[in-house]
Amino acid sequence: LMFAPIESVATGRVVARPPRTFYDTMVVSLPLGHQVVVGDRAMFEGILLGEVEKISKEVVLVSLYSSPRSQFDARVGNPSAIVVVSGTGGGSFTFEVPSDVVLRAGDTVVASFDDTVPLAVVSGVVSRPDTTTQTVYARIPVSFSDIRYISFIRAHTDDL
Q: First and final CA of the chain: distance in angstroms?
């Protein structure tokens, strides 16, 4: 997939990340005079990770989309299926798709509120003969330990 380049409003250094933080959050240190606001989206190397939940001076708390309390609409597959994705913690997600939707490990998942950047990749699909749906497992395509800096982008106002 090709995604459009996105201009960030600020970049910050990650000072705490899972598993040292609770509920799939990241603590990010920002430079003085940053332009980040609550609701801005957090990205790492073109991957959508989460949203700014709190700001305290130059420290930002980012709630990751993989948080166990997170649930949102996303698109996956070609032709794309709209699914309800639930965060399961640890950078992982799960969702259901109809049995006739063909998905493979490595397929890209994009959030419906911002389909210009990837959110996760499919890591497994489990189907059972006694049901009309398949359970899909996905995860962010990077290790939390590799995330040293986060870029912030403004959420589109029509998404809010």
A: 26
76 forms beta bridges with: 81, 109
Q: d(Cα 57, Cα 121) in Å, to the nearest integer? A: 34
The per-residue pLDDT for 6 is: 60
Nearest C-alpha neighbor of 96 from the set 128, 49, 48: 128
Residues 6+ positions from 150 with CB-CB distance below 8 Å: 11, 12, 14, 26, 28, 42, 43, 44, 49, 62
Task: Assess contact for 55 and 36: CB atoms under 8 A.
Answer: yes
* pLDDT tens digits for range 3-44: 444 667 899 999 999 988 988 999 999 988 888 999 999 999
Cross-strand pairs, 94:
86, 137
pTM for the whole thing?
0.87
